[in-house]
Amino acid sequence: MSYLWEESMSGAQNPLSIDVSVPREDAALLAVDGFLDIDTATELHHHLANQLHHGRRHFLLDLSGVPFMDSSGMNVILRGYQETRDVAGSVHVIAPTPAVRRILDLTGVSLTVSLADSVDEALAHVDAHTAQASPEDRTGTPGA
């Protein structure tokens, strides 16, 4: 399953595109291409919320195509992190560009959200996260 969404706002010099795929039932891979800023961050959040609504608990955000991210983009990542914590999920940023990595490091987001070099590495982090969760966290019932 794969979706492609493109935003073309009047005056937008670098429209954002988001390609959503589902590498496995509990995880959504969102490949983001373009500026992730105040004009486009809301759309990323809508995609994350939609995937959460469809039962995905783990978000893999491929930011290798994002040359610029402002605080709005960072806030969407943190909001996704908070929302996935409520369902024993996780957020993983994949291959951020040097400029985006610098923002994540300077703000401390990289201490909260997992960073990975590839989709496979991010899925390994998901598996490690799931293994650490207690049976109650995974099933919603104590001791199940």
Automatic annotation (TrEMBL):
Superkingdom in the source lineage: Bacteria
Residues forming coiled coils: none
Signal peptide: none
Database matches in Gene3D superfamilies: STAS domain
Record-linked Pfam families: STAS
Domain STAS: 25-126
Family that this chain belongs to: Belongs to the anti-sigma-factor antagonist family.
NCBIfam families: ant_ant_sig
Name by which UniProt lists this protein: Anti-sigma factor antagonist
